[in-house]
Design goal:
Elements (H helix, E strand, L loop, with lengths): L2 H11 L2 H5 L5 E2 L11 E4 L4 E4 L7 E2 L1 H9 L3 H12 L10 H16 L2 H9 L4 H6 L3 E3 L1 H9 L8 H6 L3 E2 L2 E2 L4 E7 L6 E8 L10 E3 L21 H5 L9 E5 L2 H8 L5 E3 L10 H4 L4 E5 L4 H17 L4 E4 L13 H6 L4 H10 L3 H9 L6 H10 L2 H12 L6 H13 L1 H13 L1
Parallel strand pairs: 11-12, 11-13, 13-14
Antiparallel strand pairs: 1-2, 2-3, 3-4, 5-8, 6-7, 8-9, 9-10
Length: 427
């Protein structure tokens, strides 16, 4: 049975209602957590769609699992096939192809002064780009790969199977290309491109490799750029003797901090951050620096809540950069480009709130949010709880004695209450 047959069988046998845990037609969207019943389940066609413009997620049961767990297309197929007892034999290893292509992209970047000058104008040096194996793709580069001699040659069909050729053209045509490596073996398993030149002004300036290609592998949404160095972070004492990483919303931001000798990783987008907790939970401190636009900040509280429940031993610090009233957003790269220094940045970081304190301050005046807040407080280390309870009591809705009693009650049957609340948010 080939992959297309497996996909069609899964779409027929796995019902969207089972994944959504609902037989209703309209439910709250579990991906954007909208207040209304904005996600529609089409039980007759076995598909779904969220009608919130900032979300818009839609598709089949395979797409649902990809969004929910941050899986690639092939990873989702394998998981559902195993659950349904469907035998699959296709391969999804495209790392060797990406390794060869990456070497050609890096050589092409070193010869293209227009691209390196652009990144220099944004404060990112050619040395930094080369150190992190950043490349550039053009039609000539792809043609050279298919005509190379010996082991470096890759056929057009293989490039197409790996997603590097899409609709007969290079997938990353006129893009700066950033490789993503697996944290265990450092093999390249994904790539992300940033448009430059003629297509620079296009709306979709960033793009990743298609996970639905025949040699599809990990989804960008499930990866941290720079995750291959996480093991090194765990062994390095750093800020105040603690292991740490800065997590930012964009590779240029991460490169900007790396030029300042700060350990920085990059995520794609600002939703479903909990898929990265498996990679981050062994760090002492995670500094989360999302863009300060409306979209990132609106999603932040619930994203932090999910991360804190998954990483109870890790301290999360939320860093928000200042911006003028006229500015829609300021990211780290733009912040330094405006003349800020590492001293200015560290002052902001040192004054940034702990994520638990941030959630208490955000939700403390809303009585309906006390159960999730108390559930979260119970998950935190014992030496943090009394301070958080005192902070919560300052809002005056409950006394400190009442909150402490609530905490003791929760801790008696904490796992049951916590899991019940998580289920209620999904329904």
């Amino acid at each position: 049975m080939d992959r297309d047959d497996v996909v069609n069988l899964i779409k027929t046998k796995k019902r969207i209602g089972d994944l959504a845990r609902s037989t209703k037609q309209r439910i709250h969207c579990p991906f954007c957590r909208s207040d209304g019943l904005d996600l529609q389940l089409y039980h007759d066609t076995n598909r779904f769609r969220c009608w919130v413009s900032q979300c818009g997620r839609h598709g089949s049961p395979i797409d649902w699992l990809m969004f929910e767990q941050g899986l690639s297309f092939n990873e989702a197929i394998k998981m559902l096939a195993a659950e349904l007892g469907i035998d699959i034999t296709f391969t999804d290893n495209r790392s060797p192809v990406l390794q060869k292509a990456s070497r050609s992209f890096v050589r092409a970047l070193s010869k293209n002064s227009d691209v390196t000058d652009y990144w220099e104008s944004r404060g990112i040096s050619h040395e930094t780009l080369y150190k992190h194996h950043v490349g550039y793709c053009s039609e000539d580069v792809i043609r050279d790969i298919t005509r190379a001699e010996g082991e470096d040659r890759v056929s057009w069909q293989t490039l197409e199977d790996a997603g590097l050729i899409s609709h007969g053209k290079p997938a990353f045509w006129n893009h700066t290309v950033f490789p993503y490596r697996h944290w265990k073996n450092r093999n390249i398993v994904q790539m992300q491109g940033r448009a430059v030149g003629e297509v620079f002004g296009s709306q979709n300036r960033w793009k990743g490799l298609e996970t639905r290609s025949k040699l599809g592998q990990r989804s960008l949404n499930s990866m941290l750029w720079g995750e291959e160095e996480l093991l090194g972070y765990w062994r390095r004492p750093s800020r105040n003797g603690k292991t740490y990483a800065f997590v930012l919303e964009g590779i240029p931001d991460a490169l900007t901090l790396r030029q300042q000798d700060i350990h920085a990783l990059s995520i794609v987008g600002n939703m479903n951050l909990k898929v990265h907790t498996r990679s981050l939970r062994n760090l002492d401190v995670v500094y989360l620096v999302l863009d300060n636009d409306t979209s990132s900040q609106e999603n932040l509280p619930w994203e932090l809540y999910d991360m804190l429940l998954e990483m109870p031993k890790t301290q999360i610090i939320t860093v928000k950069l200042p911006k003028n009233a006229e500015e829609k957003k300021v990211d780290v790269n733009e912040y330094f480009a405006k003349g800020a220094t590492i001293y200015d940045f560290n002052k902001i970081v040192d004054k940034s709130p702990d994520a638990c304190e941030f959630l208490v301050d955000s939700w403390g005046s809303n009585e309906s949010m006390y159960e999730p807040l108390m559930t979260l407080i119970c998950e935190r280390p014992e030496d943090e709880r009394s301070g958080l309870i005192y902070r919560l009591s300052s809002f005056g809705l409950f006394t400190m004695d009442q909150l402490e009693a609530f905490t003791r009650m929760l801790r008696l049957d904490h796992s049951v209450i916590s899991s019940r609340y998580r289920r209620s948010r999904k329904s």
